[in-house]
Amino acid sequence: xxxxxxxxxxxxxxxxxxxxxxxxxxxxxxxxxxxxx
Length: 37
Description:
By secondary structure, the chain is mainly alpha-helical. About 85% of the residues lie in helices and about 0% in strands. The chain is built from 2 helices and no strands. Helix 1 packs antiparallel against helix 2 (about 25-35). It is flat, with a radius of gyration of 10 Å.
């Protein structure tokens, strides 16, 4: 996975989370994303 792809996925997940779920879920997605190697 390239850095560009990771950024795209990050933005999509972040936007999706903000539009459909509470901010707490967004924080969880952020943590999960940064936890990956």
